[in-house]
Design a protein that fits this description.
- The chain starts with 7 loop residues before the first helix and ends with a helix.
- The chain is 95% helix and 0% strand.
- By secondary structure, the protein is mainly alpha-helical.
- The chain contains 2 helices and no strands.
- The chain has one domain.
Length: 200
């Protein structure tokens, strides 16, 4: 049997086909390698993006929690501000009433002080008058003793004079009691004035 002779043209075409197949195989291998590299890179990018999304979600949760806390704190501060404003209004009204009351008490105190000074002046005058009356009584007693020795008629006059002296002495004691009460009232007003001045 004779060997079959393949024409050189067909051999060239077969060699070109093999070369083309090898080239295509190498291209497919390169394409697969590139696809694998690209998929691996994409997986890394996806993992990185997932980490970023997770971090962003955590940050969002923290921001929301902080926002809620800040909102609650703002509500609390607003309530506190409203309460302080109400207290301020109440304090202003109370301060205004207190000022009016202090003004009234100051006017009354000034009036009481003037009245006390007038009472004190009257008391001092009364004391001087009483001293003068005592001197007059002493002189009258001396005159009475001298008159008894001279005349019996003078005794009657002395009795009358003694009665007048007793009345005068009774009035003196009454005036003296009134003066003591007046002095006590003046002292009480002065003490009350001192207490109010200390409170201010």
């Amino acid at each position: 049997m004779r060997p079959r002779i393949v024409p050189s043209r067909n051999r060239n075409l077969a060699g070109a086909g093999v070369t083309l197949l090898i080239a295509l195989s190498c291209g497919l291998c390169g394409l697969v390698a590139y696809q694998w590299y690209r998929d691996a890179d994409l997986r890394m990018q996806i993992a990185d993006r997932n980490r970023q999304i997770h971090q962003l979600n955590e940050q969002k949760h923290e921001v929301e929690t902080t926002g809620k806390r800040v909102e609650e704190e703002l509500k609390r501060v607003e309530q506190l501000r409203e309460r302080l404003l109400e207290e301020g209004k109440t304090n202003k009204a109370e301060l205004s009433r207190t000022k009016v009351r202090v003004s009234e008490l100051t006017s009354k105190l000034e009036g009481a002080t003037k009245q006390g000074e007038a009472y004190k002046a009257a008391y001092d005058k009364m004391v001087l008058d009483i001293k003068g009356q005592n001197e007059s009584m002493k002189k009258l007693n001396e005159a009475y003793l001298n008159a008894v020795a001279v005349n019996k008629d003078t005794v009657e006059k002395y009795k009358k004079l003694a009665s007048d002296c007793e009345d005068l002495n009774a009035r003196y004691l009454k005036l003296f009691d009134q003066a003591e009460k007046l002095q006590q009232a003046v002292n009480a007003q002065a003490a009350d004035k001192g207490d109010k001045a200390e409170k201010k």
